[in-house]
Amino acid sequence: MATVVGPAAASTRLVSLDVFRGLTMASMVVVNNPGDWGNVYAPLLHAPWHGWTPTDLIFPFFLFIVGVSITLSGKSTSTASILRRGLIILGLGLFLAGYPRFDWSRWRLPGVLQRIAVCYVIAAFSYRAVQGDLRRRGTILFCFGVLLSVAYYFVMMYVPPPGGVAGDLSPEGNLGAHVDRALMSGHLWRPDWDPEGLLSTVPAIATTLFGVVAGLCLTSAQPETRTLRALAAAGVLGIIAGYAWHIVFPINKNIWTSSYVLFTAGAAALLLALCYWAIDVRGWRGWTKPFVILGTNAITLFVGSALLVKTMNWITVTGPEGNPVALSRYIYISWFVPMAAPKNASLLYAIANLVVLFAILAWMYRRRIFLRV
Fold first, then answer.
1. What is the tens place of the pLDDT at every residue in 325-371?
2. Cα–Cα distance between 169 and 202 in angstroms, integer?
3. Given CA atoms 139, 131, 63, 282 in this order, what sign does their dihedral have?
């Protein structure tokens, strides 16, 4: 990682994209850090399997943003630079998976940052490889994303896993789960499957590629109104196509189904269009500063959030009843439980996590300190 002291942005930086990223990261911190997982409002939980909740939009939104950022970044696109960034992100993901005990027997190999690393590297190489005007590049990259989505559909629905049945989309029975157990048994999120598995990373690459296409749209010389119409139309069509595909290949974050790819990419395009219209076109920026602060140091927020929660779960203190409890549990029981009803107390604890992290990032922002990968 590199520490950049100075301006947060190049001339091509879009405030709307920073805000979109900041909104996404703030949502991630809140949904990942409740005081009590048994007391969480339903929209702040992932869908049990098929279907979606607002929480299921966070990860694909971030991958979409990664794709957009590839087209706007002034960073080097050399092979060495792309691989270096990917390896740093991958290394951070593996470090966080092992922290704090670093017990190999329980070390989870797949993960969010690991998936981001793979998606970034492939999307960045694809963006660099396709030459020509913006329309040609966007068309080819869009078709590549569609091809990956269609190929994943046919593999998941028509290729039978060893000892299984083709088209089985259950947690343990789907083809991706079989692949993960065969290659990473004992190092998964659950004994039988992982939501960031190997096979389901293929359609996640498509999500990132669709973000690249949106970024190309934003960097074009066309009038702002035309850019907005294109993003909004793509968003609506993506949502409609995702729901149509849902009939035969259900929307599902855990196996990143192709319907989920189209639906979430469409939703991301719509939200990006809304942010772009409100912030960069209309200039309504008075409310954006907190989200810019979160969005311009996103990797710091992600890693800091994980380190904070893991450290507080690791440290043991004497609880109110004299028994040893995790520091996080002690703080929640002592400070937040008496404050509000169970679900509200749990939510307030999550918001408090965000406030602490925001204070650190605000200090960094005031001093123009930005950690870059």
1. 999 999 999 999 999 999 999 999 999 999 999 999 999 999 998 88
2. 16
3. negative
Both tokens of 327, joined, read 């520091």
User: What tokens does 363 get?
Assistant: 């200090």
Token pair, residue 367, equals: 């001093």
How far CA 66 is from CA of 34, 62, 173, 201, in Å, comes to 26, 6, 31, 15
Q: Which helix (H) or strand (E) holds 298?
A: helix 298-314
Half-sphere exposure (CA, 13 Å, Cβ side) for 326? 12
Instruction: Check if the beta carbon of residue 14 is closer than 8 Å to that of residue 280.
Output: yes
Assigned token pair, 4: 């950049």
Q: How far apart are CA 308 and CA 356, in angstroms?
A: 10
Amino acid at 245: W
Q: Which amino acid is at 297?
A: N
pTM of structure? 0.94
Task: Give kind and range of the element (H or E) at residue 318.
Answer: strand 316-318
Of all helices (H) and strands (E), which one includes residue 191? none
Residue 236 tokens read as 């609506």
SS3 of 248, please? coil
The whole-angstrom separation of Cα 184 and Cα 324 is 34
pLDDT in tens, 54-99: 999 999 999 999 999 999 876 667 899 999 999 999 999 999 999 9
Q: Give me the residues paired with residue 338 across strands.
A: none
The whole-number pLDDT of residue 47 equals 97
| CB atoms inside a 10 Å sphere around CB 168 | 17
Number of neighbours of residue 278 by Cβ within 10 angstroms:
16
User: Cβ(204)–Cβ(115) under 8 Å?
Assistant: yes
Could you give the CA distance from residue 262 to residue 103 in angstroms, rounded to a whole number? 38
Cα–Cα distance for residue pair 27/63, rounded to 1 Å? 14
* Residues paired with residue 51 on neighbouring β-strands, in sequence order: 252
Q: Are strands 316-318 and 324-326 parallel, antiparallel or unpaired?
A: antiparallel
- Tell me 106's DSSP state: G
CA R_g for the chain: 21
